[in-house]
């Protein structure tokens, strides 16, 4: 039985959500992508029984997938969630993909984040179904091989 909740964004069903961090550096827009199974994606995933809305989904997934180290290698998952919430409610551009019932929060961050060591994210994420191998990369160009949930969105 599926206990994942469905939420509504502009009267459209939402079953998943995530964030795409972006900043400006040397005149270019830089985006943080996560590469999993040969495809680039944002940081996000499916709704969970404990989520209250699409914002909860995006924050929980981002903190899980980055081990709570999105903004600092010293943050706890709770601090990561607090910081991400502040960023989303203050400077986000929200988009919806009807095919995947997905809400994407494009979140601007200060360019100093580019100086942080990418090793803080690790190379794996433990999931309910096993270990997922991933890595993160700041990119100025949008990769060709995108995850289905973000195809067609303004990245």
Structure characterization notes:
This protein is an alpha+beta fold. Helices cover 17% and strands 38% of the residues. The chain contains two helices and ten strands, in the order ββββββααββββ. Strand 4 (28-36) and strand 5 (39-41) form a beta hairpin. Helix 1 crosses helix 2 (77-91).
Tell me which CATH architecture applies here.
Answer: Alpha-Beta Complex
Per DSSP, the total helix count is 2
Q: How many individual domains?
A: 1
Number of strands: 10
Binned strand content: 35-45%
Biggest pleated-sheet summary: 8 strands, mixed
The 3D shape can be described as: globular
Helix content: 10-25%
Mean pLDDT: 95
Residue stretches low in confidence (pLDDT < 50, at least 5 long) are none
Helix-strand topology string: EEEEEEHHEEEE
Q: CATH topology, which one?
A: Nucleoside Triphosphate Pyrophosphohydrolase
Radius of gyration: 15 Å
Structural class assignment = alpha+beta
What is the CATH C level class, in words? Answer: Alpha Beta
- Give the N-terminus to C-terminus distance in angstroms: 34 Å
Kindly list the characteristics that best describe this protein.
155 residues; alpha+beta; Nucleoside Triphosphate Pyrophosphohydrolase; 8-stranded mixed beta sheet; two-stranded antiparallel sheet; 2 helices; globular
């Amino acid at each position: 039985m599926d206990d994942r909740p469905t939420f509504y964004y502009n009267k459209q069903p939402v079953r998943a959500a995530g964030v795409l961090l972006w900043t400006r550096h040397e005149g270019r827009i830089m985006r943080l992508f996560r590469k999993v199974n040969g495809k680039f994606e944002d940081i996000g995933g499916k709704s969970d029984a404990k989520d209250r809305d699409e914002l909860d989904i995006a924050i929980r997934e981002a903190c899980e997938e980055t081990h709570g180290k999105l903004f600092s290698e010293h943050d706890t998952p709770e601090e990561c969630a607090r910081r991400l919430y502040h960023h989303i409610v203050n400077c986000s551009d929200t988009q919806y993909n009807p095919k995947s019932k997905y809400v994407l929060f494009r979140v601007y961050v200060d360019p100093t984040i580019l100086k942080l060591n990418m090793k803080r994210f690790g190379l794996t994420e433990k999931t309910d179904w096993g270990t997922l191998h991933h890595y993160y990369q700041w990119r100025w160009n949008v990769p060709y091989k995108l995850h289905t949930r973000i195809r067609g969105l303004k990245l």
